[in-house]
Specification:
The protein is of the alpha/beta class and about 325 residues long. The chain has a domain of about 35 residues. Helix content is about 35%, strand content about 25%. The chain has nine helices and 17 strands. The strands form five sheets. Strands 2-1-12-16-17-15 form a six-stranded mixed sheet, sandwiched between helices. The chain has a four-stranded mixed sheet with strand order 8-4-10-11. Helix 1 links the parallel strand 1 and strand 2. Helix 2 packs across helix 3, helix 6 packs parallel to helix 8 and helix 7 runs antiparallel to helix 8.
């Protein structure tokens, strides 16, 4: 059975303009699960990685709002909370649909730690915004009290920013493999994984960071020697000159071509850039591997070569 790691973007978990309620999220995930069941029916061993941007942001907001009543949890713990919440909804929706189809596979959420290097240059230049917007004076006060870094965010106020280092190691990799061997559908490295580092004795400790979920999915797919990495987003294709005159969609491209497009700056750092980089890292030097960037509803057609952007070495 061929293995596919699927990286679910935020649109697979939350509708634009939708209410930020548990019931709304479950409704969206139920729709998402319909496409995932199609992959299982087509004979793929499925491994799921998901984002957590809006969800962990709301957990942080709840932290701040209730800090006078109960101690706020550190950022790595909030990431673990989001993994459990989102995984629960995916388990419920996907498990229900798999059972309805008479399929034996069942999803299991694995709270996952992902090791990062404390020497990663990202720690010297935090860029990932999280949590609430603040007035500049209030942001300055919090920064002085807690040592946080704040940056102005597109005229909307000041937000805390944290580093976004590269994923080095999936701590629970063997557990993922065991679940796969037993016929389960692992849900792992949610939100890019809980960022951890190792001290001088090799013991793990949590760090304040956000690991890009597409790069974490690539790390997991590579470690599993998966056959395909499916990166799902809001658009059918990666594009050159996106949103500009002369926009050009990309169908089947080689790793060398994609690298050249990356070098030319065609993919924005906060959106398509990490997806292109993850796809490139997964296929480079590995003949026979396939990375796809496309919409959720086009997943199967894209695997057949009819839709989406397909990247090969």
């Amino acid at each position: 059975m061929k293995t596919i790691v699927v990286a679910l973007g935020g649109n697979a978990l939350q509708r634009k303009g939708g209410e930020a309620t548990a019931q709304e999220q479950l409704s969206v995930v139920h729709d998402t699960a319909k496409s995932l069941v199609g992959l299982v029916k087509a004979g793929w061993q499925l491994v799921i990685v998901h984002g957590n941007g809006p969800q962990v942001g709301r957990i942080l907001m709840q932290n701040e709002a209730a800090s006078h009543l109960t101690p706020a949890m550190p950022f790595d713990v909030c990431g673990a909370m989001s993994q459990g919440m989102i995984g629960y909804h995916i388990q419920q929706a996907l498990g229900e649909l798999l059972a309805e189809e008479g399929l034996p596979q069942r999803p299991v959420t694995l709270v996952s730690q992902v090791v990062v290097d404390p020497g990663d240059p990202a720690f010297k230049n935090p860029t990932k915004p999280i949590g609430l917007f603040y007035h500049q004076d209030e942001a300055g006060r919090i920064a002085q009290e807690k040592g946080y870094t704040f940056k102005e965010d597109a005229g909307r106020g000041w937000r805390r920013v944290v580093p976004s280092p590269m994923p080095v190691e999936i701590v629970e990799l063997n557990q993922v493999k065991t679940l796969m061997n037993q016929g389960f559908v692992p849900i792992a490295a949610g939100g890019g994984g809980i960022p951890v580092a190792r001290d001088s004795a090799g013991k793990l400790y949590g760090v304040d960071a956000v690991i890009d979920k597409d790069l974490a999915a690539c790390r997991l797919a590579d470690d599993l020697n998966a056959d395909a990495l499916l990166i799902l987003t809001e658009v059918e294709h990666a594009c050159l000159h996106y949103g500009k005159p002369g926009q050009q969609t990309l169908g089947r491209v080689s790793a060398d071509e994609l690298q050249e497009y990356l070098n030319q700056g065609h993919f924005a750092a906060g959106s398509m850039g990490p997806k292109a980089e993850a796809a490139l890292r997964f296929v480079s030097g590995h003949k026979g591997r396939l990375a796809i960037i496309t919409r959720l509803d086009l997943a199967l057609e894209s695997l057949e070569g009819a839709r989406g952007t397909q990247i090969v070495d």
